[in-house]
Design a protein that fits this description.
It is built from 5 helices and 8 strands. With 166 residues, the chain is of the alpha/beta class. The two termini are 17 Å apart.
Length: 166
């Protein structure tokens, strides 16, 4: 995967929202990386509302993903998160396209099966949806909670299931 998660003290400088196949999506960036991606038409204070080249590229890659033409994102992202959350988010990026894992699976990979709740909370507060694929994580009982709603999660998983072998 060509995705690098960097620690950053920089915050959003630019943002833009656009209507996509799955509804409105808002993307924010600093000068060189994605810092936020969520569903909805979200106004971000103290940022310029402008379609930068980086945001335009991110929307292009999302459109390719929605159309089944992209399985791996090639975007630089930066987050201001704790070391443990960074480890969890990095682990999420390793879940193969079209596959799911449980919170406990991720916790075990991190070396502590008791981290399952922390993994769930990290997914719930994931600042860069889709690109950091928390939609690929489910509870052990199959529960499909998702910060953007279960319908969007099911649609993302369906896109990946349909296009997995193309």
């Amino acid at each position: 995967m060509h995705l690098s998660i960097l620690n950053s003290n920089k915050y959003h400088l630019f943002y833009y929202y656009k209507y996509t196949k799955l509804g409105w999506i808002t993307i924010a960036t600093n000068k060189d990386s994605i810092t936020f991606l969520h569903f909805g038409k979200i106004k971000i204070t103290n940022c310029k509302y402008i379609l930068t080249i980086l945001i335009e590229d991110a929307f292009k890659q999302l459109e390719e993903y929605f159309n089944g033409q992209r399985q791996i994102f090639d975007l630089l992202i930066s987050l201001n998160v704790t070391k443990l959350k960074k480890q969890i988010l990095n682990e999420l990026t390793k879940i193969p396209y079209g596959k799911t894992q449980t919170y406990q699976d991720i916790a075990i990979k991190l070396g502590n099966k008791n981290y399952a709740r922390i993994v769930g909370n990290t997914c719930k507060t994931n600042p860069i949806l889709i690109i950091i694929p928390c939609h690929r994580v489910t509870a052990k009982n199959g529960n499909c909670n998702y910060v953007a709603g279960s319908t969007i999660k099911q649609n993302l998983l369906l896109i990946e299931k349909i296009n997995r072998y193309q």
